[in-house]
Design a protein that fits this description.
Elements: H1 8-29, H2 33-40, H3 44-72, H4 74-93, H5 98-126, H6 129-160, H7 165-184, H8 197-208, H9 211-240, H10 245-273, H11 275-298, H12 304-330, H13 337-358, H14 368-387, H15 390-393
């Protein structure tokens, strides 16, 4: 099939759509998780496994697709991932047990992970570090519009129709985005840069020994752990406080809007302020918002406004931080952008999955345990970043030809 050329803006929108399948899959599902748990009559821990297992699969996929895209190309891996995603959401749609639902979630996570990690590699093929951070923020801004609506949509439709509707919607998304990628997605990896299996392994080992890269991986992992624990357990807190899935989805809009604003700020000021200053500002702001959140919970202020308003600051801070951390990490090895993208994504998801499963048995009758974990994680992340010497946490980027 002849691929029609895209403008830079068109490619950005397409990559945003491909990348959005992963966050959208999680966002639209979380509000209806208590409904699925009730239908299958299982514990919170067993229901949480549908999230944790998917996060682990997502992490494995993020690492695997990166090096594979260095070896075989960006376009084939994204198309393969979207096909796997379709199989997974069909399996979940027709699940008749919590086990089958978990299998469907795992398969779909393996599929959506391709879009996230390979899209970053595409940007690494095309742009230098600072321009890549801007493009990443733009992509995240575009996809966060859909991500903002997905929990609200999932919550409302889940209450009206049932939890399976969220997977029917994803079937349509997988077909539409897959068709668009088949028609318009170009191959950006230069043939001369195709990596051998040995060189891919060598690149992974080199990155794992890079102190700056490990710092980026740990910071993004901490940010993801904080986010995943919140979105995984707050729906149960809402239910225990007598509130609905639709209410959770509506309040979630504030988080997505705040994250969107953080990304927008990055697109406007990344070149002027620099990556290090934006990351540092975001890390500190996240710790401040998390501290306010746990203080409100300890004082017994459990209305949704007191849960979500501190998170608006956290989400804005993560919008400042994540695109810049990711761009800096991928830029550490320009010739192996796929491996770098895969490793950074693997770290994010594994740390996030461990946090979710570790908190699965925490009490959800009050928001105190969740907000305490979030505050502790945010403070540790900020302290670690600030005490790391500047030449290690943000070294001069390696030469990269855009």
């Amino acid at each position: 099939m002849k691929i029609r050329p895209l403008t830079e803006r068109g490619l950005t929108v397409l990559l945003a759509a491909v990348t959005a399948s992963g966050p959208l899959s999680l966002g639209i599902y979380m509000p209806v998780l208590p409904l699925a748990r009730a239908e299958f009559h299982v514990s919170v821990s067993a229901a949480s496994a549908t999230v944790t297992a998917a996060l682990v699969a997502y992490a494995i996929g993020l690492y695997a697709y990166g090096p594979l895209s260095d070896r075989y190309g960006r376009r084939p891996l994204i198309l393969t991932g979207l096909s796997i995603y379709l199989v997974g959401v069909l399996t979940a749609l027709f699940a008749n047990s919590i086990g089958m639902l978990t299998v469907g979630r795992v398969i779909s996570a393996l599929g959506t992970s391709a879009g996230v990690t390979v899209a970053r590699a595409v940007l690494g093929d095309l742009y230098a570090r600072e321009h890549m951070a801007l493009r990443l923020a733009t992509i995240t801004m575009v996809m966060s519009i859909a991500n903002a609506l997905s929990p609200a949509l999932g919550g409302v439709l889940g209450d009206l129709v049932g939890w399976r509707i969220v997977f029917a919607i994803q079937v349509v998304i997988a077909i539409v985005v897959g068709g668009a990628a088949l028609r318009w997605l170009p191959e950006t990896r230069a043939p001369s840069t195709a990596a051998s299996d040995r060189s891919v392994l060598g690149a992974s080992i080199e990155l794992a020994r890079d102190r700056a890269f490990l710092g980026y991986a740990l910071q993004t992992g901490a940010l993801y752990a904080i986010f995943f624990v919140f979105v995984s357990l707050v729906p149960y807190i809402f239910k225990n406080l007598g509130r609905t899935s639709a209410e959770y989805g509506t309040w979630y809009l504030l988080l997505s809007f705040s994250y969107f604003c953080g990304n927008w700020f990055t697109t406007r000021y990344s070149f002027r302020l620099g990556l290090d200053r934006l990351i540092t500002t975001g890390i500190i702001a996240q710790a401040l918002g998390a501290t306010v959140g746990v203080a409100l919970a300890l004082f017994g202020l459990w209305h949704p406004a007191f849960l979500f308003l501190p998170w608006c600051l956290i989400a804005f801070a993560q919008g400042l931080t994540l695109p810049n951390l990711t761009a800096a990490a991928v830029a550490r090895s320009p010739s192996n952008a796929g491996a770098a993208s895969g490793l950074i994504g693997f770290g994010q998801q594994i740390i996030g999955a461990m946090a979710v499963q570790g908190m699965a048995n925490a009490s959800t009758t009050t928001p105190i345990p969740v907000t305490t974990f979030i505050a502790a994680g945010a403070i540790v992340a900020a302290t670690t970043w600030l005490i790391t010497p500047a030449h290690i946490r943000m070294p001069s980027h390696r030469p990269h030809q855009s």
